[in-house]
Write a structure and sequence with these properties.
By secondary structure, this protein is of the alpha/beta class. The protein has ten helices and 16 strands. α4 runs parallel beside α5 and α4 packs across α8.
Length: about 300
């Protein structure tokens, strides 16, 4: 049975349509993997399109849910792929979390953040002047049940922030749970809620899957910074003073990128070089305003 879509996406194919579309936008928010590159390969024509947009005076921002890298680390990848970018143009979920904690929560300087995550999160917290707890030996898991009693509430911890962590273990989860369970004033945040991430031609558990292990035992939910959740957009708009009506979110995922833009009142453009197939687009209730086979085709 076919699905009737009231507002199907407009296909950008003709040069005049592409030119009109570009002229209607002041700021482009780009997802990275599946839009700018796939793995370590830049998608054909993307460099030229980014240069074209800058020549036309457009603001270009790169918005990603990947919390493992700081802006500085991401900038190294852009440089390694010979893509022009500045640190100011990169907006990852780790930086969104740090900015939110510092500028929205007005986090107390005498409090610390307990981080389940990788160096990208801690680096961005430090860049905003936020102290994080030294995980020290937390990478070494508990080895016996009677060791659980050694984990106690810590009044110096004012927030728990969970991101993707290759070294996650029960000890880290138990500490985070304890801080949140015993102190209702302790802020609970997550960089994103992606349940899976693609790699090597398949998918693996993402940050959302790790988050579920923590929230299952708690009677509270986190503020989630990454796409499609709106705190990330609120932070971007506040930092860059964007006009939403003339801002476009460009992505390859309907459930994060396009949903993020639609909820936030942005224009949306889906590229077909990532995870979304034509069949998925046709059957989805989430429809972008525009669709194009590849971002590289916008140079036409």
């Amino acid at each position: 049975m076919s699905t009737h879509l009231e507002n199907p996406a407009r296909k950008l194919e003709k040069s005049e349509n592409i030119s009109t579309f570009i002229d209607s936008i002041d700021t482009f928010l780009f997802d990275c993997d599946g839009v700018i590159w796939v793995g370590n390969d830049v998608i054909d024509g993307v460099k030229e399109v980014l240069d074209l947009l800058r020549e036309k005076g457009k603001k270009v921002l790169f918005v990603t849910n990947n919390s493992t890298k700081s802006r500085k680390a991401y900038l190294k990848k852009f440089k390694s792929l010979d893509i022009h970018a500045s640190e100011e143009e990169i907006f990852g979920s780790s930086y969104a979390a740090a900015f939110y904690i510092a500028n929205v929560l007005k986090f107390s300087k005498d409090k610390k953040v307990y981080v389940i995550g990788m160096d990208g999160v801690r680096d961005e917290l430090a860049s905003e002047g936020i102290q994080s707890v030294d995980v020290g030996d937390d990478h070494e898991n508990l080895t016996a049940m009677d060791e659980m009693g050694s984990i106690k509430p810590d009044p110096s911890v004012g927030a728990v922030l969970l991101g993707f962590d290759l070294d996650i273990n029960y000890k880290k989860l138990a500490k985070a749970f304890t801080y949140l369970h015993h102190d209702k004033d302790c802020h609970f945040l997550a960089t994103n809620s992606d349940t899976t991430f693609p790699a090597g031609g398949t998918v693996y558990p993402g940050t959302g899957a790790l988050l579920a292990a923590l929230t299952a035992g708690l009677d509270r939910e986190p503020v989630i910074l990454g796409k499609p959740h709106q705190p990330m957009l609120d932070v971007i708009v506040a930092k860059y003073h964007l006009d939403k009506e003339r801002t476009c979110m460009v992505g390859d995922r309907l459930d994060t990128d396009i949903e993020f833009g639609k909820i936030g009142g942005l224009k949306t453009l889906l590229v077909m070089t990532g995870v979304t197939t034509a069949t998925q687009l046709e059957g989805s209730s989430v429809q972008p305003d525009f669709v194009i086979d590849s971002l590289g085709h916008m140079k036409a």
